[in-house]
Amino acid sequence: RCPRGGGGQPAPVAPVQFFNPAAVPQRKTQAPQAVAQQGGAPSDQMAGLSMRSAPQQAFSLGDVPPPPSVWDPPQPSFLAPEGQSPSKYMHCSVGCIPSSASVAQKFALPLSVVIHPLNDVPGQENVPVVNFGATGVIRCRRCRTYVNPFVVFIDAGRRWRCNVCGLLNDVPPDYYCNLDSNGKRRDLAERPELSCGTVEYVAPADYMVRPPQPPSFVFVIDVSARSVQTGLVREACATIKNTLSSLPGQPRTQVGFLTFDSSFHFYNLKSSLSEPQMLAVPDLDDPFLPLPSELLVNLNECRGLVDALLDKIPTTFASTTNPDSALGPALQAACAMMQHVGGKLQLYQSCQPTLGKAMMRMREDSALLGTDRESSLLNPSTDQFKTLALEVCSKSQISVDVFCCCEGHADLATLLPISKYTNGQLYHYPNFEASRDADTFRADVTRSLTRPMGFEAVMRIRASQGVKVAAFHGNHYLRGADLLALPTIDADKAFSCDLQLEEQSLTCSHVAVQCALLYTTSDGERRIRVHNLNIPVSTNMADLYATLDVRAAMNVLLKTAVEQALTTKLMDARSRLQSACVNCLRGHRLMCQGAELTEETKLLPIFVLAALKNLVLRDGVEVRADERSMLMMMVGSATTHATASMLYPSMFALHRLAGTPFGTPGADGQVQMPPLVRLSSECLESDGLYLLDTGYMLLLWIGKGSNPQALMDLLNLNTAERLDGAKVNLPQLQTDLSQRSLAILSRIRAAHPLALSLYTVRQGGAAESKMLQFMVEDRTLSTMSYPEWWNALSRQLQ
Q: What's the chain's average pLDDT?
């Protein structure tokens, strides 16, 4: 039977080893022997948490709580809503800030803010726009905080006190207004910047280094033999052509193209030409632009030539046998094309570079997987791409998206800095074949080009005196101490930062946090988007647990764990997560004596256990370096919902939809989602159909005893014999099960930035292991089950 949560102690089990035996340094244990040395028998220790029979427990965490049961739950909100930024833009991992550094240390979890600055939801109210005109943007003259709902006006409205640094500022004459009997400005309702937590200011000329540039897109396409044979060239050109009319910024939008194999080829698209002209450059050591002013052109003026070029490229290289790739020089040349305006560069790659300074070598070594030296495979083999990202792309406001379609090992770790440090995105299609992957590829390219985005952005976060922004997490380049350089910024990117008390105790009643994003809209307007939080300070440690947002905390914990894995080793990252969980629970036991854990805090152990079992941090040899690098890149820009989906995937029982409201629109027009099924193989009924959303792919598990009629209603097939591991698209059928399932799929896909491919898994088939690796509540040879983990934590806290 499927475990339903609750219940007492689990049945006695053999002891197991769980990841790093030194994960919890407070307990001294003997080093466990390797499982292999014991002939497969597990050891006696689990990360310092013993599974041996223990004396009668003096302390217990209570019954094993149920895991998450709702898909995409609403963001917990503990702050007074007046003047706060909506949680979809910015939210804190806790609803209060501890008044002392010692309490923060005992709490053990990060005091962090997750920021999703351009998360505008279509159909919802737009962010109000404020134009101060000749008055200029109202800011504190010392700390440069923007005026916001939490500043205080005094002296009959002639001065205002900054809520970040406390300085008294004069109110400009043009901005003056009398105060009412409550000390509030009488024009408060007419001033969005004084009543709304998120606003956008129209930036005056002194916020511009140069006039806003037209949105520019340069497409760099691999035309080597493999790229042509797999269909990548054809699909890339066709998809780009189909999205041209939807590119942002028209009629100002500019485009340019470059193809490469053993040399690279520019294309003259000057509007006076009758057809595009190819300009080949064989010199890889010193790339140059043959016609600097005619390679990047206005799309509207040259649309005919652009369409003709995208039709011509696949036929021009259709018969090529050239296997080489001059990727590095081609990227340098493409950056030179657009460095005077910046913009978005998209690279379509089908094989590792074989020519030029950035030539890569095959370095994946299975002998290193699962060892302390595995981190060497997760770091670049050369700094060429990082240097290009920092010294050329970031300075020139160029963001790079990479669509990697390589066969076999692609060495993503070496390539990804070009996207990571420019706030771009990495897409990976292992062993790409157009016949299988074209639909996913088209959806990803289309979204990457048409989603709302800003250009030439920088972001800064400020906090009240006594609190400092200690660290930033995400895919960006940190310019100076606190300025995030973002050549482009789009609606799918999120960032986070840690707050740290600079003093032993805080005397203020609230901590102000303000995020300011300066960017250029696709329409060419320079804007400042400002988000504000005003977080109360508490002397009671119990308030931290009462207002904890576990999903936000895990977003930051996972990002810091990834950073740790890249700088030291994976074992240290896993140790850090386990220590944070144990110390947080220990802090509750010591400082909140007698109080029961809140329902939200009870979710911490299952999320930490899921993180330790997740492919991004999992121990062992089954996770390839490219797969782990891709997931680490995803974590860097992930939102709170994205990390929660990745850690505890959502599983739905499709065979139980009949007779329920699930899969049909609710009162708000949104598709109603079924309750989540627990991630345990015991919950997979042999006559069931289960859909699993991992955040980056979808799996459909088909039980051996599935009703043939249900298979016909869902897949238009009466047997699943040939569906094990197959990529499928659910057909649109006029059956209740089909229509409900398609509606659920549509809502899931709309919530994720990547196009989610759907794979079928048959019970007992070879591909079932792909599904079972996400059953995070199960016990394996080297990991505990969820009940075992929960009770081992109880013993650790005795």
A: 89
Q: Which of 529, 520, 396, 414 is nearest to 461 (CA)?
A: 529
What is the per-residue burial (b if ≥16 Cβ within 10 Å, else e) of 637-654?
bbbbbbbbbbbbbbbbbb
- The answer to whether 71 touches 650, Cβ cutoff 8 Å, is yes
What 8-state DSSP symbol labels residue 774? T
pTM of the model as a whole: 0.90
**Taking 60 as the threshold, does the pLDDT of residue 57 lie above it?**
no
Alpha-carbon distances, residue 454 vs 178, 203, 397, 520 (angstroms): 37, 14, 11, 5
Residue 349 predicted with pLDDT over 60: yes
- Cβ-contact 592, 541 below 8 angstroms: yes
Q: Spell out a b/e string for 754-774, using b for 16 or more CB atoms within 10 Å of the CB, else e.
A: bbbbbbbbbbebebbebbebb
Q: Give the integer Cα–Cα distance in Å for 532 and 694.
A: 32
Averaged pLDDT for residues 443-454: 95
CB neighbour list of residue 369: distance below 8 Å, 6 or more residues apart? 377, 620, 621, 623, 624, 625
Q: Return all residues near 791 (Cβ < 8 A) that are at least 6 apart.
A: 9, 10, 61, 64
| pLDDT at residue 362, as a whole number | 65
Alpha carbon 510 to chain centroid distance? 30
DSSP code per residue over 421-487? TTT--EEE-TT--HHHHHHHHHHHHHHHHHS-EEEEEEEEEEE-TTEEEEEEESSSEEETTTEEEEE
Dihedrals phi, psi of 557, to nearest 5 degrees? -60, -40
Query: Using N-to-C axis directions, what is the helix angle for 232-243 and 303-316, rounded to 10°?
Result: 170
Report which DSSP code applies to 19. Answer: S
pLDDT tens for 12-40 read 333 323 333 333 333 333 333 333 333 33
CA–CA distance from 789 to each of 443, 581, 606 (Å)?
Answer: 40, 11, 9
Length of the chain as a residue count: 798
Residue 218 CB partners (closer than 8 Å, separation 6+): 255, 256, 257, 258, 296, 334, 337, 338, 343, 344, 345, 346
* HEC profile of 313-368: HHHHCCCCCCCCCCHHHHHHHHHHHHCCCCEEEEEEECCCCCCCCCCCCCCCCHHH
Read off the pLDDT of each residue in 753-776 and give the average, rounded to a whole number. Answer: 94
Rounded CA separation 453/493 (Å): 10
Which of these ranges, 79-83, 314-318, 577-581, 683-687, has the smallest mean pLDDT? 79-83
Tell me how many helices (H) and strands (E) the chain has. 19, 30
- Mean pLDDT of all residues in 575-595: 91
Q: What angle do CA 102, 104, 109 make, to 5 degrees?
A: 140
Return d(Cα 597, Cα 588) in angstroms, integer: 8
CA angle 162, 165, 170 (to 5 degrees): 35
Return the pLDDT at 107: 95
Tens digit of each residue's pLDDT (9 = 90 or more) over 671-715: 999 999 999 999 999 999 999 999 999 999 999 999 999 999 999
Structural contact between residues 650 and 676, judged by C-beta atoms closer than 8 angstroms = yes
Q: How far apart are CA 512 and CA 154, in angstroms?
A: 19
Where would I find the H helices in 161-284?
225-229, 232-243
Separation CA 371–CA 378 (nearest Å):
12
Residue 237 · residue 243 · CB < 8 Å: no
| pLDDT at residue 361 tops 80 | no
